[in-house]
Amino acid sequence: MTGLFSALQYDFxxxxxxxxxxxxxxxxxxxxxxxxxxxxxxxxxxxxxxxAGLGAAYFLGINPMLGAMLFAVLSAVAIxxxxxxxxxxxxxxxxxxxxxxxxxxVLFIYITPGYAPDLMPYLFGDIxxxxxxxxxxxxxFSLLSVLFTGLLFxxxxxxxxxxxxxxxxxxxxxxxxxxxxxxxxxxxxLMIQSVGIILVxxxxxxxxxxxxxxxxxxxxxxxxxxxxxxxxxxxxxxxxFLLDLPxxxxxxxxxxxxxxxxxxxxxxxxxSKI
Length: 274
Description:
mainly alpha, 12 helices, globular
């Protein structure tokens, strides 16, 4: 443990710690609405669609994260439009984007001249390699997410719980859904460095589930989601450093353990009251 505190003098550990806190904010805000709206599987389609952007960026010789961001936003817009129009079943649409994104990403990387890039940090994450530039954009997005949620909190809650009721109240459900999914897509790309494309769904899902197990009021749920996200991201960072484990899987497994403990404790406390 002494070695962990001494490591905080290094820039990469400071960046990783700050990145963990910013990820916690994104999980608490974006993840809560995604879980309540039951759009977790949709997030998986977006994250795997972003992989096509990574591959295309490598092929074109540009910043991979820019390619991922572009493809993630386009995937979010396309999937949301299909769902709102109900022109195809939602699960089929998401499955198509899921498979197409991975396939396109692999093909782009395969035809890229030269040595194949190391995809492990993008697939499973490595928060220890997060850069100051990435931290800057994560901080900007976190601030915008807080402002956006504060301004449209009631509308977001209404659309998340009951679209039909929101329409009866005259709310622009389609526009709000589109903004929520674009926000979700940006959060996904910014969190790729932490846990990777494959595991980002778990990071978006576990903290809000912990919050929902502990509270019913949305603001309180978000608070618990933030605190639990801090625990699992910082704890996963510590485990990866102390035990020489990959940071992404360590974060997710710690989150699974925390969720299980919360669920079991709630069950036992309920049983004892009976």
